[in-house]
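[SOLVED] Predicted holo structure with flavin-adenine dinucleotide

Edit: marking solved, answer below. Original request kept for reference. I posted the sequence and ligand SMILES and asked for the 3D complex as structure tokens.
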Amino acid sequence: MHDVIIIGAGPAGCTAAIYAARYKLKTLVLYADLGQMSYAHEVWNYPGIEKIAGTELSGKMMQQAVKQGAELKNEDVVQIKKQKSGFLISTNANKYESKAVILASGLKHKKLNLKGEKEYTGKGVSYCVTCDGPLFADKDVVVIGASNSAVMAALMLKEYAKSVTILCRSEVKADAASMEIIKKSNKIKIINGEPLEIKGERFVKAIKLKDNKEIKAEGVFVEIGLEPSLELAKQLKLKLEKGYIKVNAEQNTNIKNVFAAGNITNRTSLKQIITAAAEGAIAAQTAYRQAK
Ligand SMILES: Cc1cc2nc3c(=O)[nH]c(=O)nc-3n(C[C@H](O)[C@H](O)[C@H](O)COP(=O)(O)OP(=O)(O)OC[C@H]3O[C@@H](n4cnc5c(N)ncnc54)[C@H](O)[C@@H]3O)c2cc1C
């Protein structure tokens, strides 16, 4: 029986683990991947560190959690069940018991749910330019989206790809400086249209639009925003507010001994590393106080 199981190894989960382990709680962190921070090419706004790659900061936080005595396991949590005492947590590989749970499972990329999207994920369809951009050297790629993140993706892709098309329903909305670079680039163009299907053979070949036109594409980057990962919250019947887990100032949810921290909560609209880390620290402290 663990004192606390933390789901997620982003800044919220790792900070919760560092604090919980220092409180001498038997702490296990279960994580599916490195989370959003690892997509950050460079982080410039974490106090005390002038500039660092997201993956490096992620590695440092995980190492620190382990050094303080937490155990970290790369397993995907698929189910949480409330038991008479504590919780039973099932992953893709094992089952664990814990007296308390801290949900720090962050945000995930929204899907378009187009025909072909799931089939070609990893075969040309991607949700992460930082991770997959270099694989599309000298290829024609399409970025679907209209926000700042779609523009950032296009700017990054132009360093590798032969051509970059931003496909959006109406207007692209991004900061003026980025839009200026887009306008001047002879590699990037913006097309208005609604995607209907992602087509291909073994790999992606084109996007079919609702007006039946097709855009040639060997890579499709979906950049339509992020949403909370709520599957586990729903299993526990946690209360939500505006789509995020509702917590109080001590990171308590509506279920006793279930805490939430980081981007998944309704606590702040500033979804950043520092705010996630702060919520993780508070969640661990509350778990410790309530365990006593
Ligand atoms: C491209 C990009 C650049 C960014 N740049 C900056 C920046 O410069 N500065 C800044 O402050 N912020 C930046 N951010 C935001 C920052 O990364 C997030 O605010 C922060 O990572 C949120 O932390 P978190 O711990 O809540 O969630 P995450 O870091 O997303 O971690 C979530 C964790 O939960 C795990 N998880 C989810 N579901 C399960 C499950 N079922 N089972 C097991 N594990 C699960 C994931 O695997 C992951 O380990 C950036 C984000 C992006 C995408």
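OP edit: The helical segments are 11-22, 54-67, 129-132, 148-157, 176-184, 231-235, 273-291. Thanks to everyone who chimed in.
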